[in-house]
Amino acid sequence: MSFEQVLQQSREHQAAAEEITRFHLNNFQKLSAAESARLDERETEIREISRRLLNEAAAILWEDLQGTLKNIREATDKMRSVRAHLKSVQRTLSFAAAVIGLGGAILSQNPIAVATSALGVVDLVNTFRDEDDEEDAAEEDAVG
Amino acid sequence: VDLVGLRKFTDESVKAGAKFNDLSQDIYRACAVELYYQKYRMSRFTAISIFESPDVFLGTLPARERVECETAKKLWGNFAAANKVLMSYLYVMGQLAGDDIANADAGFKAAKNSIASLPRGSDPIIAPTLNIANTITNILMDAERQKAIKKVLIQNNGDVRSLTAKLSKALITYIVWLEKEKAALTNMYNFALANHQSFNRQIQVKPIPSDALLVLSASANLEIEVQKINAKIRAAKAYQNLLTNIKDGHRELYEEALYGFNKKVAVRIALKYAPAIQANFDDINKAF
């Protein structure tokens, strides 16, 4: 059965339970305690079936989703890898610039400039790592 | 024109999309509350503990009676995960469209500064060469991300359509859970009043009081509770509209991608859908 058919069945059971409730209320004074209890019992059974059918309808949807989810996950990973590639280009350029700066400092034979430039390279690498961590956290925050 | 405008569409979608978790978690509560009202009513309002949480209440029931609420909780955990897949897809697309990564300017600027600091000074040829290299690199990077976005839009439009449609259908079942909760609540109030009348008869109060104050008070309480449920139904429908906007926006971008993917047109499409998605978010926020 399709999602729509099972959902319809669930709704019809719910409507039937409501019919029993209405009858029960309309005849509240006339019914004996035993009759009331029997009506409650039937109503409970029908409501249970309605709940089960509602879950069944949702389960049909979930089964149908598997292929779609796999494709979208793969597409997301592809976009991530393109982004990572572009980012690596950007980072390579920044890294190269930092290394050129270090080379310049070494050629100048200025120990303070060498130390500062070397620390700059280390800082840059640390920044890349922090950026990656922050981006992972930002995605997790955004998509919940 | 920069593709960064695309992020308005993806960012607004992701922001609203995070609300799905609230809706999906509410189903477990709605299921438990329906059972609670039903039990309370059928026990003829004998002493029953106040509803504290779904877990506490369902813990008092035999496994057979609580199984459907637990199944619903599990199923909706799955749908929340499916929704997250859609939102991650949009989020990463927005990140890819963003200007911050597809730009080599910072690296080239740093390179020029570094070269200028070399002991012999900057070679007059180096700076213009770097400028040309910078421009070419930017064009190549921009082309690569544009190509990637275009390809993803073309390849996945069918899947996005399917996923949004199924999540929207799943939300119909949430609405049915809420309708069940509303019916159980209304029935509980109606039976409470009927029981009260019955009690008056049994103790032979003559004439049987019309209990106008009791009825008015009960009606007012019922109305407040019903309005809360109705707000949740409206939120679920707003989320369905959000999914429709995501599907339609993606479809228009896909159609643009088929004909070459003009950045100006793509950004115009994205900006067209962003306000509607923002409005969907506001509507969902009224209940959650």
Question: What is the gist of this entry?
Answer:
Chain A is an all-alpha fold and 144 residues long. Chain A is 92% helix and 0% strand. Chain A is rod-shaped and about 105 Å long.
Question: Would you kindly provide a written description of the structure presented here, covering whatever features stand out?
Answer:
The complex is a heterodimer of chains A (144) and B (288). Chain A is mainly alpha-helical. Chain A has helices at residues 3-26, 33-108, 111-143. In chain A, helix 1 (3-26) crosses helix 2 (33-108) and helix 2 packs antiparallel against helix 3. The longest helix of chain A has 76 residues, at 33-108. Chain A is rod-shaped, with a radius of gyration of 34 Å. In chain A, 26% of the residues are buried. Chain B has 288 residues and is mostly helical. Chain B has 8 helices and no strands. Chain B has helices at 6-17, 20-42, 54-59, 63-97, 105-116, 126-202, 212-258, 263-285. The model of chain B has no long low-confidence stretch (mean pLDDT 87). Classes of the chains: A mainly alpha (144), B mainly alpha (288). At the A-B interface, helix 1, helix 2 and helix 3 of A face helix 1, helix 2, helix 4, helix 5 and helix 6 of B.
